[in-house]
């Protein structure tokens, strides 16, 4: 055997490492030197390696949105349930009951807005700017119920868009957007501002998108979409931040004032035989001698000695001293 004070021996690179990480020599046989001494089992380490992802696979991965870091985006499902109830109440009151329709809503979806070719209409609601889009098939289904049709799917291609459809879309948006504001402010327990949606000519940059599919009974019609600008999205996250579990507030009083113990004073303790106790009668007198002080106990554990004094007709303890 030949002992080399080297961790590894590479014949190709002709490099020596003087010691292993543990400082122990590596034992190599002569045939092993020609091909390189294998590293000791103790010196093998599995180092994490970065994985290079192909462009096709990387396109499927969700990019990290830096705007949402440190913000309560994990509480957005709570808002989704609240706004879903507002939308369900709107469709039930405004459409189903009035026109004897059967509109049903799917679960609300939330996502980052993407570029599309839809014609969004934007309204200003206070400091917020909100966009809305209603699929045409859904608008036509609502119009059928408003004008007394049976709401069945039309045969062939639909006709060109009419001004009636555009007015209905604006009317629905002006009624739905205040309900969105009520859902946002309701998360923080505040009343929504008394403001009416005002139409905007230019579309601002959208920060968040809400989308919900609507069906007439079992027949899918289309989707209702809302977009929020940065001010509206910030207000939504601010309202959600109030739903975080908070630590209990610090007590205003000091700890020594909060800590309350029940003290019991033991002035006299005497053991009597059972026969003497049975012979006791009302008016019997026991000869005892009072100690100079009483034992002050906390949960039957004597901690202090104190003197008993009378003050204003009450017995008080004074002159506390520790029991050694």
Automatic annotation (TrEMBL):
Domain Flagellar motor switch protein FliN-like C-terminal, chain residue ranges per copy: 258-316
Sorted UniProt keywords: Cell projection, Cilium, Flagellum
Alphabetical list of InterPro entries matching this protein: FliN-like_C (IPR001543), SpoA-like_sf (IPR036429)
Superkingdom of the organism of origin: Bacteria
Protein name stated in the entry: Flagellar motor switch protein FliM
Organism name: Chromobacterium paludis
Taxonomic lineage from the root: Bacteria, Pseudomonadati, Pseudomonadota, Betaproteobacteria, Neisseriales
